Amino acid sequence: MRWTRLDHCSVIITDVARARWFYREVLGLTEIPAPRTFDFVALWFDLGGGQTLHLLLKPQADSISPRHFALHVEDAVAARAELRQRGIAIEETTPIPHCDRFFVRDPDGNRIEIIQWLKPYDPLHDGRYLV
């Protein structure tokens, strides 16, 4: 088996209009049609390179946890400033070498990492032992 990339990530939402506003208007993602064969509500967003984000409508949000997905940006400083200007709370976190990153939450509390790699991650130099 040979893995080639992450294809998609799915998160639970409880309000389609509110989620659509956050992911389209606040984060600036491009919505694409979900498969016509679906008999349930799902919003799909194109992340580029064949990767997508899927939002699945459910009656209850997931419990708040450290689970998250990460969106890569070209300029984390500018992204942080833009999100703050829009009133989105920024959660700073443990640094990673050669990386600028922070977290935000969508209206349902889903945790989203915003990340910019300043240099590619070098596991031999920047990593710790494997457990």
Give a structural overview.
By secondary structure, the chain is an alpha/beta fold. The protein has one domain: 2,3-Dihydroxybiphenyl 1,2-Dioxygenase, domain 1 (Roll). Helices cover 19% and strands 32% of the residues. Strands 1-4-3-2 form a four-stranded mixed sheet, covered by helices on one side. It is globular and about 50 Å long. 11% of the residues are buried.
- What amount of the residues lies in strands? 25-35%
Number of strands: 7
CATH superfamily grouping: 2,3-Dihydroxybiphenyl 1,2-Dioxygenase, domain 1
Q: Kindly give the count of domains.
A: 1
Instruction: Detail the poorly predicted runs.
Output: none
User: What does the main sheet amount to?
Assistant: 4 strands, mixed
- H-E string: EHEEEEHEEH
CATH architecture: Roll
Determine the fraction of residues in helical runs and give it as a percent range: 10-25%
As a whole number of angstroms, the C-alpha radius of gyration is 16 Å
Quick take:
With 131 residues, this protein is α/β, with parallel strands linked by helices. 19% of the residues lie in helices and 32% in strands. A hairpin with a 5-residue loop joins strand 6 (99-105) and strand 7 (111-117).
List the helices and strands and how they pair.
Elements: E1 8-13, H1 16-26, E2 30-32, E3 42-48, E4 51-57, E5 68-72, H2 76-85, E6 99-105, E7 111-117, H3 123-126
Parallel strand pairs: 1-4, 5-7
Antiparallel strand pairs: 2-3, 3-4, 6-7
